[in-house]
Amino acid sequence: MSASASPSRKRRLVRPLDRYVALEFLRIFIVTSIGFPLLVFVVDLVDNLRKYTDRQVPAADIALSYWYFLPDTMYKVLPAAVLFATVFTVGSLTRNAELTAAKASGMSFHRVVRPIFVLSIFAALLAMVIGELSPPSNSTRLELLRESCQTRTAPSGGMAICNESTITRYNFVFGGEGGRVVRATYLNVVEGRLQAVETEVRGDSVTPSVLVAAEGGSWTPDSGWMLRSGHIHVLPDASQNIVMAFDSLIDRRMVETPTELRASDKTSDAMTYGQLAQFIRTLERAGADVRGLRVELMLKVAIPVTCILIAMFGAPLATSTQRGGAAYGIGISLGTTVIILLLIQLTKAIGKSGVVTPELAAWFPNLLVGTAALVLLARVRT
Question: How many helices (H) and strands (E) does the chain have?
């Protein structure tokens, strides 16, 4: 009896309607996930073609750069793709009376849209994976477009052309090996020159903290970094400060080349979750303001989760698309997407200013969408 009941129970877990809803969702999701990036590429090319031409970037490099731009663009549009797929799938079921027929056969609204919720979880996981793949792709894209001088040769084989913005760096903090922190007001990669440089190694219960502050420094391949006109501070504890002046000093622990110091000048888009978390810890040790970066770190998780919440929000909302058809569905999807994007930009500014904690700022749009989704799901006719 139990053996015969098992196959029938399995069949009930995935019904023909489930497969139909899932296929409709996937069809729209795939089209929008690919179509939105293509639209972004066209807009970006129109806006920046003259800049690429002035830099003498070959057409092959420009075309290849958009291939490396694809992961980052897909990561940012996946929530919108989930929303479009949800609204149009549920809207089609509503307009064709398929949702009414399913309810008449004993299936609730929540049961009908269950495949959408399951697929939105897979979309969130996909967004997390793509989010970790996009930073190295972004770096390669910048090299192709001559935005970066991390290498002397572009990935396609062409020579990179550097400009002033890619050979200098101002007011930066760099995290070195062993917890060492380097701070400087100015770096010139070509000249191998630093101004107002500090290197600090935090001590522990056994070794003292050491701070080296100098007016400037110069780098040569043979000797490394030579600092000039500065002081060495040895701090065994909080109450002691042993100071020694020097005219010139070769810092053997500062092993990074000028190019490596410049290459560390990355935005949150150029770092994975782990790299950004480590970068934030380094800046915190140096006493820098990291509130904006902490918002960006939380958004690397919050944006994928939006895929799930936006499906929960869009499914009950789409039951009203019968009044306006496809145009109404497009309006709902675009309007909701724009509002969420505006909320994310607003909460970034709020989190950076310190009005609320960075974690709350990053998750606030999801809290709003999630609350609205629960209200709509509770009020929808099942």
Answer: 12, 6
Cβ–Cβ under 8 Å, residues 130 and 75: yes
Mean pLDDT in residue range 26-49: 91
pLDDT of residue 157 exceeding 60: no
Sign of the C-alpha dihedral computed for residues 37, 38, 43 and 46 taken in this order: positive
DSSP string, 270-325: GS-HHHHHHHHHHHHHTT---HHHHHHHHHHHHHHHHHHHHHHHHHHHGGGGGGTH
- Per residue in 269-306, pLDDT (tens digit) is 778 888 888 778 777 766 667 888 888 899 999 999 99
**286 with 200: CB under 8 angstroms?**
yes
Burial tier of 235 (Cβ tally within 10 Å: 0-12, 13-18, 19+): middle
Strand pairing report for 193-201 and 181-188: antiparallel
* Cα distances (Å, whole numbers) of residue 280 to 223, 274, 292, 299: 31, 10, 10, 14
| DSSP 8-state assignment for residue 243 | E
pLDDT in tens, 187-218: 988 888 999 998 888 777 778 888 899 999 99
Q: Taking Cα atoms as reference points, which of 229, 245, 244, 231 lies closest to residue 195?
A: 229
